[in-house]
Amino acid sequence: MAMQFLSLSVYSSVCGIGYPNIYMPSLRITHSTRAVATKGLTAYMGHGLMKRSRSANIPILGDEVSKKRISEQIPNVDLSSSSYDTAWVAMVPLPEFPQSPCFPECLTWIIKNQHPDGSWGIHGLHPSLVKDALSSTLACVLALKRWNIGEEHVRRGLHFVGSYFSSAMDEKLHSPIGFEIIFPGMLGYAIDMGLDLPISQNDIDVMFHMRDLELQRVSENSSEGRKAYLAYVAEGLGKSQDWQEVMKYQRENGSLFNSPSTTAAALTHIYDAKALEYLRSLLQKFGSSVPTSYPRDIHTLLCVVDKIERLGVARHFSFEIKNILDRIYRCWLNNDEEINADMATCAMAFRLLRMNGFGISSDALSQFGDASFFFNSIQGHLKDMKTVLELYKASQIKILPNEQVLDKLGSLSSNILREALSPNSEHGLQVLSQEVDYALKFPFYANLERLEHKSYIENFKVENLQVLKTSYTSSGIDDKDLLELALEDFNLCQSIYRKELQHIESWVKENRLDQLEFARQKQIYCYFTAAAMIFSPESFDARMSWAKNTVLTVVVDDFFDHGGSREELVNFISLVEKWDGNHEKQFCSERVNILYSALYSTINEIGAKASALQKRCVTDHIVETWLTLVKAMMKESEWARTNTVPTMDEYMANGYISFALEPTIFSTLYFVGQEVSVDAFGGPEYHNLNKLVGIIGRLINDMQSFEGHHTEPSNMTNLGIQTAYASFSMSS
Question: First and final CA of the chain: distance in angstroms?
């Protein structure tokens, strides 16, 4: 028996097809996207947002200008200037003349980039990043005071700090990494410099007490991760820090943790030529300011590719994505430090490279699955859930049967994520909780890509803001452009799906399949499976091949299961074997006439189109898969009719064929890629893949039937249960 069909109550929103008895909700938009997405929600046929190509009857996106703009922006890594890090670089003295700044251009930048309210920072007083603004502002004040310039800017900066100081003590507000150590440390520096802070002594004492509590909490952990974390936030510890120990974390590029602020802070205490050269190289590249982390190109480009793919618009930028991934693949082969030194970057590179066909080994992730290695890292010490989520996603991209590295990584990361989700966890996930919960409930292999696109669009955050010690942006792409394109593209596809579904309904009626009283009418479900997997607008023929073959397998399955007599079944098989157009007088019944005529005309039509694409005749191969299928169905019908219980081996050898995937998959493959050689489908790889998919489908189908998903089990389901019971009894 062919595949059964479950209720679409969970998955019905993927394609957005409005149809009786199936509810396909329109695209929902969260508050963060609504401001730029309102017009996109009504992007249906006839609303002026699409044009038609002159060369094909396929709608194309109307805003080609937007796609061109995004295409040009994709390779650009546009790291925002960090007021916080630039201030620390500005405090570095000249090695030869410590009374003079080594980078006076940074001081000029600080003076020019103060906000009207007296603050510094990427977004001024962003509602959720007040602590970031306080930290950036106080750092800039210290830099100006260190060299006794910008007195008015210092005054305005201190006024801002005093006005919003209460926010620094608000534990409910988001804190940049290390804020509880760095900000009190900078307060101490300000007092030592003789700055007149507009803050009560009591509030200052509260901040110092918060720092002491944080240091006490951190000291309870003796891991290497704790030491690395304290080295990363060393600018907040000043003379109490062992700077020689901190320098042990220096990277090949001369930096400490790729952090300009940590590197600059170290240079205010000890001289290091490589560290100084790192800062000089940044200013040569970025001018008079520095970003909060560098290099970050690979991580930024990976995030861009990931974002584009998750929005469902990757096919518009395949050239740009290939160029990026080719570059990252070369870096992967060269063991680039920017990839290997950061767990999240390495995990994302592994996932995206593998998902895009690059043959890379999972060995590079082996150390990340070691609990001791993870918790001895900064990310492990901080329990950085974004990093853990990336590790979990990477662990699911398996292509080999025994990838223990990924199994170990998946076990560790999933346990950490589940612990973080628990109500008693000390590490609240906040905005990540929904994404983590979804990832744990629905593994990668159990998801439909189009459903992922829809969910990501709905929850897309236009603000491309990330936070380390301070907030920053890194991509040159305007997220508003990306979102609008994704919305338009998604709704364009929906309109196409609706028209295609109407075509399927018309085809069913034209072939009189709706007149067969024994047959289930599953054309909506059959088309849904096609559109959910083969969703690009130009893939019309592939979707039609999949949907029509699936509809036919359902009807033929019902015919062999309970709809036809033995005489009719034999007659039908005989007709498929002959595959002759002159068959009008060979039908033993009208039901055979309807069924065979529909199969004959449909397969010949699909075969003709596929043959044109493949530049050789492939119709015979499609017919051959159908003949193999109906013979397998006949064998099961005979077992049921004679009450024969086959062995489990006999049952599975026939069952993976009768699950009816081969005619659907093989015929569709002719439409979805390059030309397929004659030998390819006859080779062992294709045979084994087909067999494995069929076995999995057969077993899942039988289990679901047994568990009561279908109120009327078929003869085949009952036969499977009897076979399993007989096998169990013999082995007991």
Answer: 28
